[in-house]
Amino acid sequence: MERTSPFLEIARHGRNEWWRYAAGVVFIFVCWMGGQVIIAVPLVSREPDPARADLLLLALLLLSFAPGMAAVAVAVRLLHGRTFRTLVTPNAQVSWKRLATGFVGWFVLAAVAGLVEALLHPGRYQPNPEPLTALPFLVVAALLIPLQAGTEELIYRGYLLQATGWLLRHPVLLSILNGLLFALPHAANPETSAGFVKVMFLYFLTGLFWAFITLRSGTLELAIGAHTANNLFTVVVANFQETAIPSRSFFTVTEIDANYQLVSLIVGMVVFYLVLVRRSGEH
Predict the structure, then answer these.
(1) Does residue 207 fall inside a structural domain?
(2) Is residue 51 scored above 70 in pLDDT?
(3) Which of 52, 58, 116 minimizes the C-alpha distance to 232?
(4) What torsion do the CA atoms of 38, 39, 41, 42 make, to the nearest 10 degrees?
(5) What is the distance between the alpha carbons of residues 159 and 108, in angstroms, rounded to a whole number?
(6) Whether the Cβ atoms of residue 25 and residue 160 lie closer than 8 Å to each other
(7) Which listed residue, 25, 39, 96, 118, has the most CB atoms within 10 A of its CB?
(8) What is the dihedral angle through the alpha carbons of 263, 264, 268, 270, rounded to the nearest 10 degrees?
(9) Is residue 5 over pLDDT 60?
(10) What's the structural domain count of the chain?
């Protein structure tokens, strides 16, 4: 990448004093965390029908990201005098085709990785004995996973990546920093019980890669699509027994194999980059 990514250049528009970004980060995370607490109140203040408790929990968990997205929109508009679109792309319009390409590409890679793991380790993927019970979760996830994944992308690969772009200009260093920022909040996730260091490295590597393809392509669209596909596949198709986003999926993964996850992630990243970023002629 010989010259600065257009994704960082668009951040030079508007008002960009350091204190604005500091205030923006605080405002976003206060609203995000505070909103999650407020939205979770109905779950702890009533006793829902046990048959619907899991579905309600999933819906509330995903809806709790809405204040974070709203806070990002307010911060970029009021603090920086820029449009919300500039967190996604420097182009005149968001490319839904590119976003869909990122979604389909990552979903296919996740499905292939899951199939290979199921063949290598028979019994690790247990089918849901009542598959129809997964359908309501499919509907809720399809509606709200884009909100959850999109919010995280707008915060980490949007606002924070553009903010740190004022400190670092090298794409690899920026991606490493972004990967670290993305991994830290996931330290309390139940998945880390499979091996804290390895699972945290998976989070770090994922965040690093999505930051890198954002800088490489010049837009956030591929990363939003990939993140949405990743979470939707996990929640609906093959979820873990212990997970940060519990649901009734069509398959249950009985063991988190961090070593296999790491290898499949690296292979998937290489394929995704070569097929959807480099060969597509993205900047």
Answers:
(1) yes
(2) no
(3) 58
(4) 150
(5) 28
(6) yes
(7) 39
(8) 20
(9) yes
(10) 1
> Which pTM does this prediction carry?
0.93
Which residues, in sequence order, are bridge partners of residue 239? 252
Distances from the Cα of 112 to the Cαs of 109, 208, 263, 271, 280, in angstroms? 5, 22, 13, 12, 22
| 253-262 pLDDT tens trace | 999 899 999 9
Query: Could you tell me the two tokens for 105?
Result: 């590409």
Question: Residue 197 — pLDDT band, cuts 50, 70, 90?
Answer: very high
The vertex-243 CA angle with 240 and 247, nearest 5°, equals 75
Is residue 112 a part of any domain in this protein?
A: yes
How many whole angstroms separate alpha carbon 225 and alpha carbon 248?
A: 23
Provide the 10 A C-beta neighbour count for residue 159: 22
> Which structure tokens are listed for 189?
């996730």
* Strand order across the beta sheet in which 251-253 lies: 125-127, 251-253, 238-240
How large is the average pLDDT for residues 239-261?
89
Domain hosting 101: range is 6-278
Matching residue, tokens 């709200």: 144
In a domain? residue 182: yes
| Bridge partner list, 251 | 127, 238
User: Of 10-14, 34-38, 76-80, which gets the smallest average pLDDT?
Assistant: 34-38
- Asked if the structure places residue 1 within a domain, the reply is no
